[in-house]
Specification:
Blueprint (H helix, E strand, L loop, with lengths): L19 E6 L3 E2 L4 E2 L2 E7 L2 E6 L8 E7 L7 E12 L10 E6 L4 H14 L14
Antiparallel strand pairs: 1-4, 2-3, 2-6, 4-5, 5-8, 6-7, 7-8
Length: about 140
């Protein structure tokens, strides 16, 4: 089969189980130490979030986090998290360093509010479109 210039690459299937959305949270506190991360959250789901930071925690690290969702929710979330993956800085990588955190003890009411906020954010995200063709 010949390759054409207007061929759209196959879509990679996302194997995540929870809907996620982009987010920018600049201040995230470790509530057990009141220490503030030097990093920021860039995406979130009902199962966890990604924190972009220069010194990600080791795999399996547990700690308590507190952060507030942006308007209109203004929902403050406090829960225990676990580092389920991390990515160290590498000059060769185009991906930002950071860590993926899983929410451990998010109560049902907060999880429902978070899921609703994520669903509402989807209306502001443009659906993926096909690459332009050269006709």
């Amino acid at each position: 089969m010949a390759k054409t210039d207007n061929c759209v690459p196959p879509v990679q299937i996302d194997q995540r189980h929870s809907l996620r959305t982009a987010i920018l949270i600049k201040k995230i506190c470790q509530t057990n130490s009141r220490q503030v991360f030097f990093g920021y959250a860039t995406n979130i789901s009902g199962a966890g979030l990604f924190i972009s930071c220069t010194k990600p925690a080791a795999l399996g690290t547990h700690f308590n986090l507190e952060f507030t969702l942006p308007e209109p929710a203004n929902l403050t979330i406090s829960c225990e998290c676990k580092t389920i993956w991390n990515r160290r800085y590498s000059i060769k990588s185009k991906l930002e360093p950071g860590m993926g955190l899983s929410f451990i003890d998010l109560d049902e009411k907060t999880k429902k509010e978070l899921d609703e906020w994520i669903c509402n954010q989807q209306q502001f995200i443009a659906p993926p479109s096909r690459l332009p063709t050269n006709n």
